[in-house]
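[Meeting: bench + compute handoff]

Bench side (C.D.) handed over the final construct sequence. Compute side (W.E.) agreed to return the predicted structure before the next meeting so the bench team could plan truncations. Sequence as handed over:
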Amino acid sequence: MHYPVKSAYFVLVLCGFAITLPAADPQRAEVESAMRKATDFLRQQVSVQGGYLWRYSSDLRQREGEAEASAQTAWVQPPGTPSVGEAFLQAYKITQDKYYLDAAQETALALVAGQLESGGWDYRIEFGEDRSRYFYRSDADGHSHQGLRNVTTLDDNTTQAALRFLMHVDEVQSFGNPQIHDAVRHALTRLLEAQYPNGAWPQRFSQPPAAEMFPVLKASFPDTYPESFPSADYRGFYTFNDNTLSDMIATMLEAGKIYDRPEYTEAAKRAGEFILLAQMPEPQPAWAQQYNARMHPAWARKFEPPAVTGGESQGVIKTLMMLYQQTGEARFLSPIPAALEYLEKSQLPNGKLARFYELKTNRPLYFTKQYELTYDDRDLPTHYSFQVNSQIPQLRREYTRLLSGQRKDIDQGDKQIDMSAMLVEEATRCIAQMDERGAWVTSGLLRTQEGDEPQEILEMRVFIQNMNALCQY
């Protein structure tokens, strides 16, 4: 919808800030043309049935998500298919141009085609010959699907991102597309079924847990535990790793609002109750990355030992504050003071936190490049953060603010700032850097390429950032 501009400036409210923008350079029509051109390129030349990967060679001959992918593969794990879809949907909300809603629906239907019978999504969706290896719900035909891959993953915000995007499209379409609405309903039902009796979720699942195998217990220290990697299957553990539980809580809270269904909000609260149970006792009142059914910290991958974590514990504190903001229930703030005090005492000389602290002794734990457990941080693998930045001052400020009765979003700023120059610069840059196809080309490496010389690539992360910048302008 277009409104006449009565002066040389107009005001846009963005991320809580009041922003004054000049009505000139670049013109709205130029920005909209760039957005349309970039979206056309993706839909017509990059998409596989509405789905997207992470990055491509500029000539589109090489493709990948987190791993190598074929021309008939889409990636679910962000910044893949649902992230691109959210960019289309944001463009529709800003411009009210149905073209972008059509693009978002196209991407939503790609996710519907990739939904597993177990309810969620794998990291990837296959549309080619490999499709027969998966138990996709849309392909169910009444025949036996024994042996087909049917594992929903909650790791790396995979299923959660897909589901939230489908919920957003469903809401915008007033719940009128039966394929999308039914996919959301199925996913939410199966996620409720997969929730453990104590409120946690596993990292992956294919069927509901046997409740009698998972008693509701409070976290405790094990008497003994393997000091070397036992190669155990950790996928069914209660997990905080990679913000799995936080993403699930956010998804369920949003589902409760969109569909006005209290069972989704209650599922989020039960997950919060698990967080309360999972806080370790003194002298380490924070959280582990993952727990076994006895609520003992446990091994996951060969570089993730039983330990109290300085990394995920900070994310848990943010999640507790989010739950308090969304529900108003003060019990979700109760673990925070002891956890913050413990983390403050555990900071390293460089001001950071160790990812892992040994149980009871609180000595920082590391691994060598040969994956030998050590107290020495001089020979660390480079693919994983064994030391993390401390966010304790920010977390303490936020906790104090919440206690004072203020309940604005955690990441919302406190000041109004004039961002007009920044937005003009970003919009101008986005338009200038687009090639004649409508692509934003950057320099980088692909897993599939030979050698270590950067090449011209297309990244969905860059498309999303630039589309959002143009929308904000």
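W.E. noted at the follow-up: Confidence is low (pLDDT under 50) at residues 1-23, 410-416. C.D. will use this when planning the next construct.
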